[in-house]
Structures are given as structure tokens and as C-alpha cells.
Design goal:
Blueprint (H helix, E strand, L loop, with lengths): L2 H8 L4 E5 L10 E5 L11 E5 L8 H9 L4 E4 L4 H10 L2 E5 L5 H11 L2 E2 L5 E2 L2 H12 L2 E6 L4 E4 L8 H7 L6 H10 L1 H7 L4 E3 L10 E8 L2 E9 L9 H20 L6 H10 L5 H8 L8 E7 L6 H22 L4 E5 L2 E6 L9 H15 L3 E5 L9 H18 L4 E3 L4 H15 L6 H4 L3 H12 L4 H8 L3 H9 L8 H13 L1
Parallel strand pairs: 2-3, 3-4, 4-5, 16-17
Antiparallel strand pairs: 1-5, 6-7, 8-9, 8-12, 10-11, 11-12, 13-15, 13-16, 14-15
Helix pairs in contact: 2-3, 5-9, 5-12, 9-12, 10-11, 12-13, 14-15, 15-20, 17-18, 17-20, 18-19
Length: 502
């Protein structure tokens, strides 16, 4: 993961970048401790925490980290001398806020890093998920374990209260407030149910309004998600989004306890859609009924130009956002990324399930918060789970056509069947020059545009001329220059298809 990603996740509450001689796209592979009393034990790509080394005592450690090709070092007190040493050593220098505990910083920084499974697949970090939950709820998010330790949190420009500030720094909140939460049974409720808990603000303690939900694996509590209200009220769908978020977060926390289980649900979907696993097995793993209808929806992020890492971050945020919506809609929903697209399996559907509204809601939310275009194709609802591949293939056909020449944000094959079929024919023409008429390929742009307008107008010269903003005689003159028998309907058909390809 890049240093930029880690800095975005941790943000101002904990660290501040001082120098980055190699830029922010350097890879960070691990977080390690460097103690001045011990021999340096740091490797390429490490983020080294310089504990107990301040001032000039940190200089040899910074130089050692540079020689080992570390990505960055973190100190409690920066200085011009340390910044120059880091620049000379070719290693980034981070300054840690004085009140931050080293152990808490190490835990959070390791939490940001993605974890790669034995088969090379990657589980996204909790910080990206916290940011997604903040987007959907309109609040300020913290994800905690069962011991109330903060595992991840969202970035925020809103005012945070004392409880959140202390929690992020790894310190305990105001005891009167915590005692009140215990007396109200808030912690017991979070551990024992999926119910969203509402907590009123306490101005006298500097505590703002909150909602919270427990994270569970079956009956086992894993932690909780807390959402503090900021300068603006929480969104109308905040509680529904929080319920879905808790279900999505559970596999992440399970992963921390049991690393081999990482990406299990994502792997299930990939295996089902590629035919490597049968529907009954997948259904048994996710608690779905394989005999009930199901559908696949496929999403794609458009506008991938520019910084690649930024695009990847946006795609990760989009996938997190989709996961929250899908889990809120169906507990057994599966979400997986493949080939730059995000696939969603929705099992246990009613025979007449209407998925367009859900998909449009996801696309609208993603576009608004990611500030980029998102397209989605809804596969048809198939009668049983073992037909999910049919729904997936249909959705992929629609999304392929949307990527080529359709501006729709959300579509089904029934909506755009003709456009999809023509788009697939045009793609075939594009890939096979031998089945094209070379005379049409040779037309200059002006003649090609004029001929297509004429064909689209079904031979109505005046209508085509109006569309081109030229005199009808001008269009007639252009058509006479084209060496094609336009009275032949087959010639017209080939020409129209080939010109649309151009």
C-alpha cells in the first residue's frame, strides 16, 4: 500500500508529513519499531516508529532506515536537522502528535495496511470502510473492537467531540459519560443484538449525538460501529446504512482473528460465477436458499484517467459503498471485484423483485460522493441460484455496451436490448476489418457524417440537411460524390452499421 494511502487514512489526528524525498507513492509493507538501544531491524518498505529517540539521538536511526530502503520513519519531535537527514537518506519523515501513544499508532497503522492471502487476493482496510460508512450516514465514524479500542476511523472536517478525540488517541473517554452508557445498557445491547442504538447528546460533557450498532458473527460479538453527528444532521438512511455496514465489517474483524478466512465471501461469489463451485455449496455457506430467485448486478467506475492510485482508492470506496447497500438489502448478498468491476449477487429474491431502484440509489450515492461517473447493469432475475451465471453474463453484455456507446447510468437488457445488439455487432466489425466495406472506411469525415445523417433520416434529404445545418442541395452534392449504390437496401444497411462504428 502506498504511503499516500496510509497518510490519508491516519490523517491529522495522529501524524503529519514533514518530508517525502521519494514522493508519496512509495510502497509500505510493514510497521516496525526502532529502538535506539537495540540493533536496527528494518527492511525495505517498512514504516519505522522511532520510539525513545528524540533530537540528535534519532539521526543514526534515520540514516539506518535509509540504508535499509525503508519507506518512512516516524518521530515524536521533528526538527530541521532530522528533516535534512531524512532527505539525505531518501526516506519520508512523519511527525507524531505528542499525545499519541506509540502502541496505539502501531496498531492503527498496521490496520490500514491490506493483508494478502496465500492465493494473492487482498482484503481492503478498515479505514476505507469507515470512510464509506461516514459517506452513507453523514456522520463521523469509529470502528471499535469488543474492548472499545478504536480499530479505524473516518476523516472529517466537522467538529469532533471530546469522546472521539480521546478514543482516536487511544485514551479513555470521560468516565461520567462511559458510566452513563453502562447504566443505560448500551454496551450490553451492542453485544447482544443488531439493533441500532441512539444516544442523545450531553452538552455538559461536550458529547454530541450518536448512533451505534454492534458487529457480530452469529451470536459472537466482534465490536461496534459508532457514528457521531457532526455539524450537519445524520442522513435519513443513516440507521439502515449502519445496519448494512455492521454486516460488511464483520468479515474484516473475523479476518483479524483468523487470517486464513480472509476474502472468503468474495471468493465464494467468484467461484459461483465462474462455475468452480455449485450453487448448493455457496448457498449453504451464506445462509441462502438455492431454490429461490437470484440476480447479479455489475458496477463499473468510469473516468479512470489521471492518478492510478487515486482511481484505485475510489474503486475501493465504491466497492465498500456497494457492500453496505447490498448487505442492508439482503444479509446473504455477496460482493466481489474482478477485472475492474464490482459484482453483486442478490439471492433469496421474490419472483417479481425490482432491483432498479436499489441500483439507482447506489449509483446516485456513489456519483455524489466519489465525484466521478458510475455505471451499473442489472442482470435478469433468474429462477434459482444455479442460474446466476446467466444473470451475470447478461449484465456484462449490457455494461460492455454502456462502456462503448451508451450514456445510461443504470440499465437492464430489456431496457436497451437493441442498443446492446447493435453495439456487439459494431464491436465485431471493429475487430474484423475483413468483413467491412473498404469504400466506407475510405470516406472522409465530412462525407461519412453526411451519409450517416441521410441514412438515419431514412433517405429524407431535407431532414438530414436540417440535422447537419446545411442546404439540401449541399447534401445532395455530397451524396453524389460517394461511390455507393444507395438504392440497394443491403448497401445502406452495411454503410449505416459501419459508419456508426466510426
Amino acid at each position: 500500500m502506498s504511503l499516500r494511502h496510509i497518510l490519508i487514512a491516519l490523517g491529522d489526528p495522529l501524524v503529519e508529513l514533514q518530508v517525502a524525498p521519494n514522493g508519496l507513492e512509495v510502497d509500505v509493507r510493514d510497521v516496525v519499531i526502532m529502538d535506539p538501544d537495540d540493533p536496527p531491524d528494518v527492511a525495505a518498505g517498512d514504516l519505522a516508529l522511532l520510539i525513545g529517540a528524540r533530537g540528535r539521538a534519532a539521526l543514526p536511526l534515520i540514516r539506518a532506515a535509509g540504508r535499509a530502503k525503508a519507506a518512512a520513519v516516524a518521530v515524536k519531535e521533528s526538527s530541521p536537522a532530522l528533516e535534512q537527514a531524512a532527505t539525505d537518506a531518501g526516506v519520508a519523515l512523519l511527525e507524531v502528535r505528542p499525545e499519541v501513544r506509540w502502541g496505539h499508532l502501531e496498531s492503527l497503522a498496521k490496520g490500514v495496511l491490506t493483508t494478502t492471502t496465500d492465493d494473492g487476493e487482498v482484503l481492503g482496510d478498515l479505514f476505507a470502510l469507515a470512510q464509506t460508512i461516514a459517506t452513507l450516514t453523514g456522520g463521523i465514524v469509529s470502528i471499535e473492537d469488543t474492548a472499545s479500542r478504536v480499530l479505524a476511523y473516518s476523516r472529517s472536517s466537522d467538529e469532533v467531540d471530546e469522546l472521539r478525540r480521546l478514543s482516536i488517541l487511544g485514551r479513555q473517554g470521560p468516565e461520567p459519560y462511559l458510566k452513563m452508557l453502562r447504566e443505560w445498557g448500551v454496551y450490553n445491547l451492542l453485544r447482544s443484538s443488531e439493533e441500532v442504538v441512539r444516544i442523545d447528546e450531553r452538552p455538559e460533557l461536550g458529547i454530541r449525538r450518536r448512533i451505534a450498532v454492534g458487529i457480530h458473527a452469529g451470536r459472537q460479538p466482534l465490536g461496534a460501529i459508532w457514528v457521531q453527528e457532526g455539524d450537519q444532521p445524520l442522513t435519513q438512511q443513516a440507521e439502515r446504512a449502519l445496519l448494512g455496514a455492521a454486516r460488511v465489517t464483520a468479515p474484516h474483524l473475523i479476518h483479524q482473528r483468523n487470517q486464513p478466512a480472509s476474502r472468503f465471501r468474495e471468493n465464494l461469489l467468484a467461484a459461483l460465477l465462474t462455475g468452480r463451485m455449485d450453487a448448493a455449496t455457496v448457498a449453504g455457506q451464506i445462509g441462502a436458499d438455492p431454490r429461490k430467485p437470484a440476480a447479479v448486478v455489475v458496477f463499473a467506475l468510469r473516468g479512470g484517467e489521471g492518478d492510478r492510485s487515486e482511481h484505485e482508492l475510489r474503486r475501493a470506496e465504491m466497492t465498500g459503498l456497494i457492500s453496505v447497500h447490498a448487505a442492508a438489502y439482503r444479509r446473504s448478498a455477496l460482493v466481489s471485484e474482478s477485472g475492474g468491476r464490482t459484482y453483486v449477487l442478490l439471492p433469496d429474491l421474490a419472483p417479481n423483485a425490482q432491483l432498479l431502484n436499489l441500483t439507482k440509489e447506489i449509483v446516485t450515492t456513489a456519483r455524489r460522493h466519489l465525484h466521478t461517473a458510475v455505471q451499473a447493469a442489472v442482470g435478469s432475475t433468474v429462477s434459482t441460484l444455479d442460474e446466476a451465471q446467466i444473470s451475470r453474463q447478461e449484465a456484462e453484455r449490457v455494461l460492455d455496451a454502456m462502456a462503448r456507446d451508451l450514456d445510461d447510468e443504470v440499465a437492464t437488457l430489456a431496457d436497451v436490448r437493441s442498443q446492446v445488439l447493435v453495439s456487439e455487432i459494431l464491436a465485431l466489425l471493429q475487430d474484423n476489418p475483413r468483413i467491412r466495406d473498404p469504400r466506407i472506411d475510405a470516406l472522409d469525415p465530412e462525407l461519412a457524417k453526411s451519409l450517416l445523417a441521410y441514412l438515419d433520416a431514412l433517405g429524407d434529404v431535407r431532414a438530414a440537411a436540417d440535422r447537419l445545418h446545411v442546404h439540401p442541395n449541399t447534401l445532395r452534392y455530397r451524396l453524389k460524390r460517394i461511390d455507393l449504390d444507395l438504392d440497394d437496401p443491403l448497401v445502406r444497411l452495411v454503410a449505416q452499421l459501419q459508419l456508426r462504428m466510426r
